Amino acid sequence: VQTGKEEIWPPTPHAVPFSLQEEGLNDVQEMIKTEKPHPERRLRGVLEELSSGCLRFLTLADKDQHHSSRTRLDRERLKSCMRELENMAQQATALRSQVKRNTMKDKLKLVQNFLQKLRFLADEPQHTIPDVFIWMMSNNKRIAYARIPSKDILYSIVDEEMGKDCAKVKTVFLKHPGKRGFGPAGWTVQAKMEIYLWLGLNKQRKDFLSGLPCGFEEKKVPRGQNLPSFPPISLLYTKKQVFQLRAHMYQARSLFAADSSGLSDPFARVFFISQSQCTEVLNETLCPTWDQLLVFDNVELYGEAHEMRDDPPIIVIEIYDQDTVGKADFMGRTFAKPVVKMSDEQYCPPRFPPQLEYYQIYRGNATAGDLLAAFELLQIGPGGKSDLPPIDGPTDMDRGPILPVPLGIRPVLSRYRVEILFWGLRDLKRVNLAQVDRPRVDIECAGKGVQSALIQNYKKNPNFSTLVKWFEVDLPENELLHPPLNIRVVDCRAFGRYTLVGSHTVSSLRKFIYRPPDKKAQQWNMAVPCRNPVGSHLNSIVVNMEPEVPIKKMDTMVKLEANSDAVVKVDVKEKKKKKKKGGGGGGGGGEEVEEEEPDESMLDWWSKYFASIETMKEVGEEQQSGSDAKLSPTEGSKAQAKNKDKDKSKAPKDDKKKKQQPGPELPEKKSKQKIDELKVYNKELEAEFDNFEDWLHTFNLLRGKIGDNDDNATEEERIVGRFKGSMCVYKVPLPDDIAKEAGYDPTFGMFQGIPSNDPINVLVRVYIVRATDLHPADINGKADPYIAIKLGKTDIKDKENYISKQLNPVFGKSFDIEATFPMESMLTVAIYDWDLVGTDDLIGETKIDLENRFYSKHRATCGVSQTYSIHGYNTWRDPMKPSQILSKLCKEGKVDGPHFGPGGRVKVANRVFTGPTEIEDENGQKKPTDEHLALAVLRHWEDIPRAGCHLVPEHVETRPLLNPDKPGIEQGRLEMWVDMFPMDMPAPGPAIDISPRKPKKYELRVIVWNTDEVILEDDDYFTGEKSSDIFVRGWLKGQQEDKQDTDVHYHSLTGEGNFNWRYIFPFDYLMAEEKIVISKKESMFSWDETEYKIPARLTLQVWDADHFSADDFLGAIELDLNRFPRGAKTSKQCSLEMVTNEAELPMISIFKQKRVKGWWPFVARDENDELEITGKVEAELHLLTAEEAEKSPAGLARNEPDPLEKPNRPDTSFIWFLNPLKSIKYLICTRYKWLIIKIVLALLLLIMVALFLYSMPGYMVKKLLGA
After folding, report:
1. Which residues of 351-369 are buried (b: 16+ CB within 10 A; e: fewer)?
2. Do residues 407 and 353 touch, judged by C-beta distance below 8 A?
3. What would you report as the CA-atom Rg of the chain, rounded to the nearest whole angstrom?
4. With 0-12 CB in 10 A as exposed, 13-18 as middle and 19+ as buried, what is 705?
5. How far is 455 from 492, CA to CA, in rounded Å?
6. Contact 938, 951 (CB under 8 A)
7. Is residue 1097 within 8 Å of residue 1119, measured between CB atoms?
8. What string of DSSP letters covers 930-950?
């Protein structure tokens, strides 16, 4: 195909990086799948190729950018491609350095996103050249076609810009035209052809045969003398090679279930060049092991021998399902390239015999299993077939002419025994509208299998009567080649009919394989010390448990210098002394504040919870910052001299973060270590303990025949139930010593010590602490959540206790439910949104499988507390005491112990634990007890050899809430935990009270005594003098509408004001959270009040009163009642520092001090937005509980009871136009006294002069005349 002279296509980015990247990624995935070493290196290589490919494209495109024939779209698109690829090259380089062994999976996903982006960019938005169509005709009817994108066969002088199929012999599959080409019908191939295509400019036509296999002669048509020679009509090949293809079809796995029974009857058809052969049909299996060799003789291939070797034609393998009636159904297809051996090569390793490989089978675009096979293409030399390696291997007499896969290629098989533990079936859905009543489970692996006992009445008891069954099967030694194991559940209907309910494929048996321990390794195991040995006695390890020290802080590592490590063992008593001496080690100077013991009666479950959340955050932060040698200040050992100075500098900084204590010289944490804690998991408990599948696994059963229209159905929708059980695969025979162990029961095989699966009654106690980040359900962006719990037939809806307008409700509730396992074992906790009208909406729900928890070895029935106490907020919840639990665990795990010895020691297996041996009862009497010791062992149970595993601690788990209508999107999180107690055991005590703390009623009395240096705002009408009419306003944050004002001190000329005025603020306060609780309606239309929690802050403001205009704001101060600076003793000492430099000042809390008096500054911002001091106030704060306030009442303002005296204000506090005489009197008497005297004197003088002047002439005349 040739086109005109002008070059009309822009280069596409696809040519450069993406075929390489695709191959590379497939390699990486293959490496991970087959668990080859260092897949991360290969991924780094892929990223390097990608970035260099991108940069290469940029250089090519850059030359190409300013071509004359580009349209604007071409230019812009090229720019965008260049931008994207430049960006991608940078990202790839950055990613390359981040690829590590553990981040492999995430990074692989990112690289796959690159690949998708490249595919998208490579797609031309505007096709400049039409595509090529190939039609197959028969009797002038179009039967099948193929469409080849022209960009794939474009020729270019630059290798990278060449189409990927240009000048290559390609295999093309033709498909049905029109509608028939879509869907399952169109997946079968109508025809396959080999074709060579080249599309380029006229001037490049001399190259068009360059890609054909060599060894041909052209046959041309004679044309006129001066006409150029056109392409030849035909090519005559002189060189041909004869080959034999051997297809070793071993097995396929995880095929598509084509029959309604959930199985298929598969056979494979192999196509090569122009020949095809089929394997035999295997009935009723999804993992057929054909173990068959197909031989294709006399395959003729053309071209040079070396070309054949490097690029042999592809083999197409199609899998079909044989039906008794009608034609076979297509189940999937895959392609393979054979390993080629030329006649002059030796048939020897490393290339021969070829290894079996997995080929992914595709059905449409979906994957539908894998094929395990090997293909070799052997050249038949001049000596004929006799030179080929013989097809040795037993010809199966039973299978007639079928050849099995020869020995060098087929995997080595061993005899394995597969033991299956049948426990029960759960949540089976209806099949064909009928309920499942008598189910049975069939297990099949590599053609062998076993059936479970029949469950007689699924409704009454869904567990199996026979627990363990086994079968033997030959499996490959190489575990990667193990076939999957199929679990099918059928329902036995009337008249002996069987209906498939659902099936599950266990694709890898690896985690169920049992390897008997080596003799040598066993002895070695016994002597491995536990994580923190303190001293070992012969063969036993001593674990030292100190009282009151959290166990994980047993040994304190103190990094002294880079070169010296010292382990400091701190004794508790020393610790306390140090604390008192140095103010916690960090208090090198300054006031020593003794650490206060929390009051037992004040502590409740919430104290424990909040302390634990603090710990969780700290642990999280430490993990993030990767702090290896960080010391927590409670560890006492800071009194080490070298660390002292560091700590001094650290303490004030930390203080800013945690505004908790008055003094800067105190250690960071208040009284952390004294409160017993529980473990807060910020995920589900299942995630932490591996789904509690330590011996009982849950397999989801999927619906049988998948119609192709179900391909988009999610996994969830296809689940029709769950099978509970387990399996154990091991080579037979086992070493003898296992069967000889004491108490070995042969009927249970490998599943020793399994509890009985008879129905059991259990008391389930569900504690719901709180929910966070709920999805809003109402128009106002809030929700009114309440709890609904469902377990079996019990359905609790706590509707009347809904919490109004909250997305983070604190429920603090516990519910007791009696249930019978196994029938009622799925607990659903849902959060609904209460609506006044209409039905309540589900916000989200979480499901917990209680049965797996109940039977787990991790003992998830009731968490093990940190300490054992018999009263107070940390009472032991379990009806069994730690010593009873320990004895039971030792007995079940066949562990020697527990042996309690004198001096607070206990020996279990070969571990010795020490700990306290006394306990205080409510009256403070000390009694001897072994419980602390037993608890120490339980908390370290994972260190016990063989039987040990991590026991579930006392905890709160955080579970995501999901809504079936919005799959996969978290609707909020729920913090909760579940306790379970079997009813045949002694009854547990009452549930712990975790109800939310009720706020305590307080009354805050604030007396405003005086103000000073308040800025003067007003000018006097007559005299222009500055003055202010001062009053003070106060309120508690959140109660602005209840603000209170003093009376006005008029006409203060110095900024001094006298008030003697009392405010009274009643409020509800939560001590633990340091918040005020306010309940109010959001709007007049609200149905009920909403609760808000806000910090306790008192605001005082100073104002200038104006009669005709609005009052002027002069300044304010806000005091956090938990942490505010101590007031200054006098007005002089009161400064701006008290507001700006809070961190340095000693802080006090009104809740501790109860009564405080002093001077505080009022501040406001000036024009430059800087704080300036605008006045000072002398106030007294007095905090009383509601009861105290009732006993000693006080009046508002200056009223009875307990009245305050009137302030002593000078007489200037008047208003001139109300009292003019007084005003005049004042003006005359005080301000202008001297002025008036001066004026009077001057006037007298003036009069005298005037009189003198007036009378002088007369006198003169008189004197002169009448002398």
Report:
1. ebbbebbbbebebbeeebb
2. no
3. 45
4. middle
5. 10
6. yes
7. yes
8. SHHHHHHHHHTGGGSTTT--P
Q: Domains of the chain: which residue ranges?
A: 16-122, 132-212, 240-388+398-410, 415-516+699-740, 760-982, 1000-1191, 1220-1255
Among 1088, 435, 513, smallest CA distance to 750 is for 513
Contact 609, 551 (CB under 8 A): no
Residue-wise burial string across 245-255, b where 16 or more C-beta atoms lie within 10 A, e elsewhere = bbbbbbbbbbb
Token pair in block for residue 1110: 């609005």
Helix residue ranges per DSSP H, 1175-1219: 1186-1191
CB neighbours of 112 closer than 8 A, spacing ≥ 6? 25
Average pLDDT, the chain: 80
The pLDDT of residue 655: 38
Average the pLDDT over 1214-1234 and give the result: 63
CA proximity to 1115, closest of 1102, 1125, 1105 = 1102
Helices (runs of H) and strands (runs of E) counted in the chain? 20, 57
Torsion of CA 983, 985, 986, 989, to 10 degrees: -60
With a pLDDT cut of 70, the percent of the chain lying above it is 82
Per the confidence metrics, is the pTM higher than 0.85? no
Phi, psi dihedral angles at 73 (to 5 degrees): -60, -45
Among the CATH numbers 3.90.1200.10, 2.60.40.150, 3.30.230.10, 2.60.120.890, which is that of 240-388+398-410?
Answer: 2.60.40.150
Q: Are strands 565-568 and 679-681 parallel, antiparallel or unpaired?
A: unpaired
Contacts 24+ apart (CB under 8 A), 31-39: 32/104, 32/108, 33/358, 34/480, 35/480, 39/104
| Strands (E) located in 574-690 | 679-681
| Helix ranges restricted to H, 99-241 | 104-122
415-516+699-740 has which CATH code? 2.60.40.150
Q: What burial class does residue 1058 get, using C-beta atoms within 10 Å of its C-beta: 0-12 exposed, 13-18 middle, 19+ buried?
A: buried
Question: Which of 988 and 1023 is assigned the larger pLDDT?
Answer: 988
> Strand locations in 191-328, DSSP E?
191-196, 200-201, 216-219, 234-237, 240-253, 266-272, 275-278, 289-302, 315-321
Domain spanning 1000-1191: which CATH class is it, in words?
mainly beta
Which tens digits make up the pLDDT trace of 337-392? 999 988 888 888 888 888 898 999 998 878 888 999 999 999 888 877 777 888 76
Among 46-55, 206-215, 683-692, 866-875, which stretch is predicted with the lowest mean pLDDT? 206-215
- What is the C-alpha to C-alpha distance for residues 1173 and 1162, in angstroms, rounded to an integer? 6
Residue 1210 has pLDDT above 80, yes or no: no
State which CATH number among 2.60.40.10, 3.30.465.10, 2.60.40.150, 2.30.40.10 fits the domain covering 760-982.
2.60.40.150
Mean pLDDT across 775-800? 92
> CA torsion sign, 1155 to 1161 to 1165 to 1171?
negative
Tokens of 390: 């013989």
**Phi/psi of residue 1246, nearest 5 degrees:** -60, -45
Residue 860 burial by Cβ neighbours in a 10 Å radius (0-12, 13-18, 19+): buried
- 1000-1191: same fold as 415-516+699-740? yes
Token pair 């009723």 is found at 284
Pairing of strands 1171-1185, 1155-1165: antiparallel
Q: Which two tokens stand for residue 9?
A: 């296509």
Q: How far is CA 478 from CA 412, 589, 941, 1168, in A?
A: 8, 70, 35, 79
The pair of three-digit structure tokens given for residue 91, joined into one six-digit string: 């990202």
pLDDT beyond 50 at 148: yes
DSSP code per residue over 63-96: HHTT-TT--HHHHHHHHHHHHHHHHHHHHHHHHH
Cβ 714 vs Cβ 519: under 8 Å: no
